[in-house]
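Figure 2 data, in text form.
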Amino acid sequence: MQTEIVQQFDDLVSKGLQIIPVRSNSKIPMQKAWTKWDQGLCRETLQRYPDANIGILLGDIIDVEGDSEHANNMLLDIIGKYPHPCYTSSRSVHHLFRNPDPKLRILRHQNIEFRGFRHQSVLPPSHHQGISYSWLNCEFPVPEMPKRLLKFYSSLKGSGKCRKKGYVCVWCGNCESKHFIHHKRFSKELKIFKSLHSKWLCQKCREIDLRPLCRQFTKYKGE
């Protein structure tokens, strides 16, 4: 007798999704070579671990995710009533579309995230930290990205063309303004903000002077 998770696997694969086994109550794939999809191996793994979560291997299909109430509302406004598969996780709404960009790996903007190649997203009926993932709309097959969302994605992708080598595009955790900052500096500042239990903040939103903390961090790391 097939377990529920194997039945879910068969159903989603028949709808054109590349489903992979994910560790129980986790977002971590079970297989080391999870980016190379093997339908038989994935199904066999889920038969052996019926309590596992499942995820979708992204690439031909992308996950467009809103990671805050504002981001979710923004996506809903852009997508409208366009029919497509979508589901909820702990605090996000995930929208699945055909990938319009063969080079897309990941693109972020104000808590909106476009995920593609070499990424995966956990799917219903998985569980993580006491939260059950559930479908809002299970309408298949996965459609092309709607024109308004494609235009929005293209504008974000184009805005990064003038970025200098070594710089990353980041958004303030308070005012959500966009900034280009060197990856080494951002990595250092992000670790300090995490130690303060805060998201990364721009200069205008900072209540403390990071320079002494950065010097201590550099000295400690021997940089």
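Caption note: Residues 167-221 form one domain.
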